[in-house]
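To whoever picks this up:

The parser on our side crashed when reading a file containing two proteins. I've narrowed it down to the boundary between the first structure block and the second sequence. Both blocks are reproduced below exactly, byte for byte. First block:
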Amino acid sequence: MMEPYSLRLVGGVGVRFVVLGPVAVAHDGAAASLARSQRRGLLALLLLNANRIVTLDAIMEAMWAGTAPPTARKQIHSAVHAIRVWLREYGAEQAVHGDRSGYAVSVRPDELDLADFQSQWQRGRSAAAAGQTAEAVGMLRSALRVWSGPALAGASGAFVDGARARLEDQRLTAVEDVIECELALGRHRGVLVEFGDLADRHPLRERLHGHVMLALYRSGRQPEALQAYRRLRRLLAEGQGLDPGRSLRALHDALLREDPELDGVTPAEVRWSPAPVWPTFAASSRCASRWSTSCPGCR
């Protein structure tokens, strides 16, 4: 099941930073979290910009959105010190580094759950594009198991809500990718069992609704598929003043005329373009290979 979250720690050795769930550090199979939400927010901000220096001005804007107090810089320096002291217990103090102009967190991809998720997601989409649909399902589901809860849980800062929404959009897109592949493999009944109520919880995601409609139709439930379309059309009209998009309208028309092509496998509109990854993991940073104190300006 893709919903709810698996609440499972990935890994079990070394240190792994967590932002796809409660902001924390996973160490030896257990998770530990900072005591204050603002510190968790600052750590999350640095992790979302892993292996890049984030300037103090950028930190202040992200944390306070133009309303930074006079003591903002002092608060940031103090919070970074507290984070480093906290990380010392896990042998990861040097992961957070910088100077008075800004700070960074240096991690390898396997030390950050977000980088792990995005890497596996990309591999899954690439497999799907290559026609390796069964393999793609396994990769995509493995990517989704990296999540342990709502992104950035327990963190505070002006940037958090927007960043959480963008990360959640990535997760739901990956779920839609799983459903796409399952439908291509003819597993429409399984899709309804596992994901049948997901569209109700995310009523404005047209691609998700289209998947559910197609699964209903292929399961011999054409009236319910058409009803799902009418329900979405009403929600869009009342809430957004919009009609369903072109591809969903085309699917609805095909359902009405019982188009034989609907009994095929992958719908024609799927192109398996590269996943819309954000943020980009800066694995090429010269001080990213390990927690470094040798990079000039990063001490």
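<<boundary where parser fails>>
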Amino acid sequence: MIRASVAAAIAFAVAVPAATLGAAPASVEDRARDFLVLRLKEALVLTDGETAEVRELIHHSEDRRRELRAARAKIEEEIRRKLGTGTPGKGDAAELDRLVGEANRLDEELALLPEKNNRDLQRMLTPEQRAKLILFRPRMQEEVRRAIRQRLEARGAGTPPN
């Protein structure tokens, strides 16, 4: 029954464009975020208030991820500019070291963001909900991988490596 309601909600979200509801069209990221919140609500039996908190947590996380990616792109631009000037001098070498260190720091923060979100989410939950999350998370990760694989195959891009 729960799977049927999830399937119905997803079908509705995909079939009815947001524009027909008087809102701006939702991005793929927005739909994915809403799907995740819906799945968490069902799996963890969240109240409406808890669901709103989870939605806010995920929203802030996505904002942070975008900020980190933008900062990383800026660092890459600076590195390309430094390397494009020919043989780096001593001052350039120090600057390149600084830029590489900053890129590494951003990469690490991006990589750790999902775990930070998981910890933050668990702080909001009851012990029973945390236990359900531990069991749910691997299933959800597999669902996401499967959805990505299906999308890539539908586009003709092939199957990503496991």
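After patching the parser it read the second block fine. Confidence is low (pLDDT under 50) at residues 1-23. Residues 48-83 form the longest helix (36 residues).
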